[in-house]
Amino acid sequence: MSTPVEGGGTLSKLVPAGIALIFIGVLLIFIGVFYSIIRSGGKGEYGGVVVIGPFPIVFGSGGGAVKIAVIGAIILMILALVIMLLPLLLARGGTVAWKP
């Protein structure tokens, strides 16, 4: 029995491409951080969000970074809600009726 990885199929070509894209993404993040530090004269701001369950914890060093982190957290929470409710919304649009 041959799997796509053993047979040299598409999956064996997509894995190195995915690893390369992850590496390029991390490299772009580092370049962006260094560029913003240089542009601001050595005074960089930081901000981030840690999501534990449905509760976001926002932290940061300056007002601008915290605002961006809060906006990003809200967008990610809305996106997660839509993805979780998508099967229910698709089922309601069809012939399947939801009964409590």
From TrEMBL:
Keyword Cytoplasm appears in the UniProt entry:
no
Which stretches are annotated as coiled coil? none
Enumerate the UniProt keywords alphabetically.
Answer: Membrane, Transmembrane, Transmembrane helix
InterPro entries noted in UniProt: DUF131
Q: What Pfam families does the record tag this protein with?
A: DUF131
Q: Which NCBIfam families match?
A: TIGR00304 family membrane protein
How is this protein named in the record? TIGR00304 family protein
